[in-house]
Amino acid sequence: MRKNQSAFIVKIVLFILFIGSTIGVSAQKENKKDKEQSKDSLNKGYKDYAKLLKDATVTKGLFSVIKTDTDYYFEIPDSLFTREFLIVNKISQVPLAINEHGLNKGMNYENKLITFHKDSLSKTIWVKTSNPMVSSPKNDAITLSVKDNFAESIIEKFDIESYNPKTNAPLIKVNKVFNGKEKSFNDVLNNVGLGGSVKSDLSYIQKIKSFPENVVVKSQLTTTVNEGGPAMYVTLGVTSNIVLLPKTPMQARELDKRVGYFTEKHWYFNDKQQAMKKQEFITRWRLEPKPEDVDRYLSGKLVEPKKPIVYYIDPATPKQWRSYIIQGVKDWQVAFEKAGFKNAIIAKEPDANDKDFDIDDVRYSVITYAASPQANAMGPSVVDPRSGEIIEADIIWWHNVMTSLQSWMRIQTGPIDSKSRGNVFNDAHMGEAIRFVSSHEVGHTFGLKHNMGASHSFPVDSLRSKTFTDKMGGTAPSIMDYARYNYVAQPEDNVTAITPKIGVYDTYAIQWGYQWFKSPLEEKKQLKALVNSHANNPLYFYGEQQPYLNTIDPRSQSEDLGDNSMTASTYGLKNLQRVADNLEEWTYQEGDDYYNTGKLYMGIIGQWNMYNDHVTNNVGGIYLNNTLHKDGKQSYQPVPYQLQKDAVAYLNKNVFTIPEWLFFNPVLKHTYAIKDSPLGPFEQAPYTLSRSLQYNTLYKLLSNERLLRMVETNLYNPEHQARYTVQDLFTDLRSHIFKSTKKGASLTLVERMTQKNYVDVLLIDTQKILEKTTVKKLNTANFFTTTSFCAVALAEEKQARNINYSSMTRTSEIASYKRQELQNVLQLLLKKKRKGDANTQAHYNDLIYRIKNTLKF
């Protein structure tokens, strides 16, 4: 019986297996049929995929790019929906009119974070954008609110044109966002300041290339510009990159304000807070040791990074300069070794056989050479806004930057370096200058901001020491300062290290920004200890960039040298006088006119004027320190009394007494000072030029904000050594400017000019103070704006310390001080109005009338 039961059970099992297999085969056939029907249904109402591809060109990559005639389609895999991309837009070509205004190839003008979202129901792909500066922990309750209060915005809509029958990936036609019809992906005209709209019938997509992590789109976009005359057609070549960002952003590093880095702002929320936390993430490359080298790295051994930073030299760069630009990049190797990495940075020429090389492709960081009259260079970067990671760098090198280098070297070092005296330098001498600029701009692409306070750490007289300058290697402990060339050293000093070099601050800043740590906690602890260990050493001082027209801290100035502006400028004037004595000899070229002579003459006057600004900023100046609780430092330290008094004495001697060697130079027999302009060279008559520049210095010196700073400072620093007062300033100025008047002597034309300038500044300011509560600055002629590198870097460097000294000037003490000073001058003039010759008396009567008319008595 058991045997029969067993046989029966076996039969039952076999039957079940048979039935199951039959059902399985049937089910597989049914599923396959369903899938085919599903794919068929996908294509209902869409373009036939096979027909679309029949005569098309297909490029595989991040997106498959399908080109049919003049139409372009993106085929987007499902895995890339909701992933974050960065659109990076650059200039590729410009016509002359745009070139002349400083817009050139290689310039990045717009970046935008986007995500793609598939909506099968509406047959649509939505494109959204957001600012990823807000974050919160995934599981915190407040994260629900963060998502709703910082949501994405829709910027574009694409109809789904077809589906890939094998992958179900949708196709979208993208012409409209790259040919100028829509501004969602590329708003070039508004971003470069032209405005208006693209003429679609004169614009087109040139080509689209797709690579594993980015898509590159090149377009020609045309507009018209009308400036009161006939319409001018302007076509811009633009390159748009769509870059896939990493799923996991780089570990962000928070800024310490005692080290100068560019930053991305960030807001952080969590449930435990009582207030939102504001953060700043520094911008830096993702330098990490290879997994197999982590232990060696942490033990202090140098290792090569997983992915080095690579810069390519634009093939358009003249061959004689390429090696110097490359060396300027390589000079930073020593700084990255301080951070634990060897061979971290590479600079090279592109492989001529690399057909995909494109300097506008974000896969390549390029030092782009721009044929342009612009005399500049700059080093911006493309940054992942989520973390501060630098994705790619774009150094723009304008051809005419060499004119600035030649002028600086000639004027600042000509007296001590015979190679710097001619109209043209030899290639080796110019090459070393190019190497310096290359290092400076590359420093910006590592994330470093200007350190305008670095040069203040060198004692002025040390810059005259061959031993000191040879040891320290340059003019400041940071190449990120605008410490140009050594204008302090005198011919007898035999100083030869006169060019800025990468210094101790730079290696320290790179170590702070790029040293790798295993955990965020360890990183924070070690970096804080690093800064604290250098906090009291002036060589590591970081001085924030300040607005040129509102410099509060005189330690952090552009193009100054040493720790005392008055001493440094006095030495500088001695060298300037040597240049002035050799104007014609150094610029002589047989058969030439005096254009180069006039240009050099104007350069000398500009350098003199720059020294005036350096000195002026000590008066009413305040040392601004980045302080922490219990570090024993003051946040606001007034410039010491004696330094302010010395500054006014310098100005009295060298500005409010016009230097004859400068403005009454024998070269005036052959040429005036010449300044180039878009309308051609302007020849500046000496009396008019000296009067205008002297007036500018007086106006800056007696600005309401400067005087208000002096009042504020003396209010909470009553000790005598801190008290250089507004009354002291007026007394020192009046005593010098009216010295001959007090003696009853006749005045020279130049003395009368200075008195008129002084009185007029007081009259104008007094009238303006009483006119309005908010004082507008007088629009004085400014013949000299500081020639500088880093146009983009400067635009990004906002003043970190915004201190208000100018509100409600009308009700401050300043109006009283200025009116009283006018009365002091008036009393003196009334006493002396019959002294001196006829010109002097006419001058006094004129000033008396002006003052009385303003004071209304």
UniProtKB/TrEMBL annotation:
Residue stretches making up the DUF5118 domain: 47-94
Molecular-function annotations in GO: metallopeptidase activity
DUF5117 domain segment(s): 106-290
EcxA zinc-binding domain location: 423-742
PANTHER family to which the protein is assigned, alphabetical: PEPTIDASE M1A AND M12B, ZINC DEPENDENT METALLOPROTEASE DOMAIN LIPOPROTEIN
Matching CDD domains: ZnMc_MMP_like_2
Gene3D superfamilies documented for this protein: Collagenase (Catalytic Domain) (3.40.390.10)
Annotated InterPro entries: DUF5117, DUF5118, EcxA_zinc-bd, MetalloPept_cat_dom_sf, Zn_MMP-like_bac
Protein name per its UniProtKB record: Metalloprotease
